[in-house]
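task queued by scheduler; priority normal; single chain, no ligands, no partner chains; default sampling; output format set to structure tokens
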Amino acid sequence: MTRKISRRTVLRGLGAALALPSLEAMQPATRLSGAEAASHVPPRRMAFVFVPNGIHMPDWTPQGIGYTFELPYILEPLSSVKDDLLVLSGLTHDKGRANGDGPGDHARSASVFLTGSQPRKTSGANIRSGTSVDQAAAQVIGSATKFASLELGCEAGRGAGNCDSGYSCAYSSNISWAASTTPVGKEVNPRLVFERLFSSGRPSEIAQNRGQREEFQKSILDFIAADARRLRGRLGQTDRRKLDEYLTGVREVEGRIERTELPESKVDQHVTPYAVPAGIPSEYGEHIRLLCDMMVLAFQTDLTRISTFMFANAGSNRAYNQVEVPDGHHTLSHHGGDPKKHAKIRNINRFHVTQLAYLLERLKSVREGGGTLLDNCMIVYGSGLSDGNRHNNENLPVLLAGGGGGTISTGRHVAYEQETPMTNLFLSMLDRVGAPRPYLGDSTGRLQRLS
């Protein structure tokens, strides 16, 4: 017989604390109604994914409007989740423009991406931008979860120094800002993210657990096995299957992380010119996918409801040999109308979208309530620039994926009037996660036609 368990049940072992996905045993009895039943409605999550250097817009923008649009070349990898998408055209970040501050478009494109605020042009310590949408939400709903927010990235950043025409590196390497002068650093090592999500929080136990796992080649699941067996005895057949699938998924991710830490794992300097510490895959796509898995696990177990992910820093000059583009991305973005460079840029763009497809498909594969985890998410994907050569900030490439808990009507291409602030989208998202604000950055109101 199934026994009711708390939604906050955690499987524990030495140095390990494994949160659980939503199970039927966590749901209220059918007789509950009103506020008590509403408290068991799946929470809404939101995430923001940033890519640098703009997009080749002719192969991004659908020709059709509404439900009849076709996915263009760059967006084709999203065909399996097309009905879960909104392609949003016409949105603008005016504060990403120079507005009298001269060059530095790449740094501005990252700092404005989630803030909608003009960054102060400085390479010193007196940085200033604005509170980002993710942190505006975290300040209201972050206390409901173990982690108020989760910041991820594939390239480490610097908090000081000149990275773009007099703009601090803090602008180029951060999209999350807790306050106008406080960027929130991101984690680039999947191993450290994994340990953070599934540790007990006690440093001595965490170190002992890690040491024993390495010495005896054990999984984190070995340390919570006894607790897991006790829990299985209290669950019905459906929940047992769901628990087994979840634990198998955790072990699979852990195994992939471990394989990146093998001594023979070498960094291919033709793929990335950056120093890669242990735990970070040398293959860029696998690096992205592992961090995507971290986000999915964090959302699935309600460890956080808010996340950001920088696929690369603003102005990144990473090469993409995996799609036969040995040239640096930033260098290519200054294409000057060269068709050969256009072709390479669109292949880089398609590579990034392929990784986004992986994230969305993973979210869609997790059952939650009467639907999927993706149904209860809002995932924004885009760049702070349109064309990387012109450095323009209007008609930005923006996708919104997920149903927002039934509040968003997906499967459409929606074209807005030019110069519509992207921050209007953010206000509408904050409303949906229960963190409304009167304004954010340069917003002028809520974004219409999402539902």
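post-processing summary
- Confidence is low (pLDDT under 50) at residues 264-277.
- The chain has two domains: 42-188+280-451, 191-274.
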